[in-house]
């Protein structure tokens, strides 16, 4: 006969509770993971659809370019700040503006750039400042985009980021996607029409990938006021490095191994007196040291591409058309000696 003491009963119940808790947690986690995977390829988020339109449109431009090219890789500061049309016309080197959106993070930008870059190309990196301090953790925008349009990115991500992405979608968002998935055909048809409207309003692109509707004539009072209120970017010296710079280093090494030349430069942004501070100067210096250590030419200086607020369209990284022309001409003058090796 087995006798249980009060203590042994408590231990038994504690173990039973722990096992039940673990089992329930695992089942809930599995259920949530299945919910995520079965709604892959669907999104009810308008911003995600707009980002996909940008990537898909620029991918088509890349695919239609059969010659060795100058490929500009960054977030939207290039899309709204550099004219590949001007570069192509003045240098006779085919140029594709691969500037997309910084919100998806530097890892996705450079992951995608690998598929756009070919042996013999030259890649220009006018990366936004936040990329050098990026934590490497996927944000909500990237998670939604990955499960809606690029599951291959999820498959190649490191295990920790896969977990973050898998359990990073809000339950309410998943429910909205399932409602969308099981609606009738007319509902889907209406949604597709809405997507076309979103795409048209996101930004008109020319055959080089440049945004061409960022003119001063298109600026509303709301945009003028938005620009007036902008403040200096937070360039924190202590945050420089880590995952963001490791991703940049990895991409540059990949380019070298695939015989793709890399040139770096500075993003276009608003000039503030605060950038004369020692911390900001140290931040710029660290960027210079990074590219020097990698043997990558860094053309121009940070201040060369910092302009008055009157040159900007709707954000601290988006120039209007007049600003684009000035910035691009400065860039052409610096770039020309490096483009002579591009032979077609």
Please give the structural blueprint.
Layout: H1 6-38, H2 46-63, E1 70-74, H3 76-79, H4 84-91, E2 95-99, H5 106-116, E3 122-125, H6 140-149, H7 151-156, H8 159-166, H9 171-181, H10 185-202, H11 221-228, H12 243-257, E4 261-264, E5 269-270, H13 278-294, E6 306-307, E7 312-315, E8 318-319, H14 321-339
Parallel strand pairs: 1-2, 1-3, 3-4, 5-6
Antiparallel strand pairs: 7-8
Question: Which percent band covers the strand fraction?
Answer: 5-15%
Name the shape in a single word: globular
Unreliable sequence segments:
186-190, 197-201
Order of helices and strands: HHEHHEHEHHHHHHHEEHEEEH
Report the strand count: 8
Largest sheet: 4 strands, parallel
**Range of helix content:** 40-55%
Radius of gyration: 24 Å
Query: How many separate helices?
Result: 14
Strands side by side in the biggest sheet? 2-1-3-4
Average pLDDT taken over every residue: 88
Structural class by secondary-structure content = alpha/beta
Termini Cα gap: 90 Å
Concise summary:
The protein is an alpha/beta fold and 344 residues long. It is 54% helix and 8% strand.
Q: Can you describe what's shown?
A:
- With 344 residues, the protein is α/β, with parallel strands linked by helices.
- Helices cover 54% and strands 8% of the residues.
- The protein is built from 14 helices and 8 strands.
- The protein has a 4-stranded parallel β-sheet with strand order 2-1-3-4. It has a two-stranded parallel ribbon with strand order 5-6.
- A hairpin with a 2-residue loop joins strand 7 (312-315) and strand 8 (318-319).
């Amino acid at each position: 006969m087995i006798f249980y003491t009060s203590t042994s009963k408590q231990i038994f119940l504690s173990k039973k509770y722990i096992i039940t808790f673990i089992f329930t947690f695992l089942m809930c986690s599995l259920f949530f993971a299945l919910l995520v995977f079965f709604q892959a390829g669907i999104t009810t988020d308008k911003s995600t659809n707009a980002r996909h339109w940008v990537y898909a449109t620029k991918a088509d431009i890349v695919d239609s370019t059969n010659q060795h090219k100058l490929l500009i890789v960054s977030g939207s500061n290039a899309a709204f700040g550099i004219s590949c049309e001007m570069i192509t016309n003045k240098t006779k080197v085919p140029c594709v503006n691969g500037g997309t959106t910084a919100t998806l993070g530097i890892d996705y930008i450079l992951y995608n750039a690998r598929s756009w870059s070919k042996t013999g190309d030259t890649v220009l990196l006018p990366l936004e400042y936040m990329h050098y301090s990026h934590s490497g953790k996927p944000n909500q925008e990237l998670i939604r985009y990955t499960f809606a349009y690029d599951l291959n990115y999820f498959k190649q991500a490191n295990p920790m980021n896969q977990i973050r992405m898998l359990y990073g979608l809000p339950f309410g968002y998943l429910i909205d996607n399932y409602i969308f998935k099981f609606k009738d055909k007319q509902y889907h048809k209406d949604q597709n029409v809405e997507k076309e409207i979103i795409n048209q309003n996101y930004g008109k692109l020319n055959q080089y990938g440049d945004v061409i509707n960022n003119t001063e004539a298109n600026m509303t009072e709301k945009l003028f006021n938005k620009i007036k209120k902008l403040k200096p970017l937070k360039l924190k010296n202590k945050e420089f490095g880590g995952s963001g710079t490791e991703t940049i280093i990895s991409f540059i090494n990949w380019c070298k191994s695939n015989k793709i030349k890399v040139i770096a430069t500075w993003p276009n942004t608003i000039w503030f007196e605060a950038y004369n501070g020692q911390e900001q100067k140290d931040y710029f210096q660290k960027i210079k040291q990074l590219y020097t250590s990698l043997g990558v030419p860094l053309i121009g200086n940070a201040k060369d591409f910092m302009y008055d607020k009157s040159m900007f369209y709707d954000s601290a990284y988006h120039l209007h058309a007049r600003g684009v022309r000035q910035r691009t001409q400065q860039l052409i003058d610096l770039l020309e000696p490096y483009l002579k090796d591009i032979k077609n």
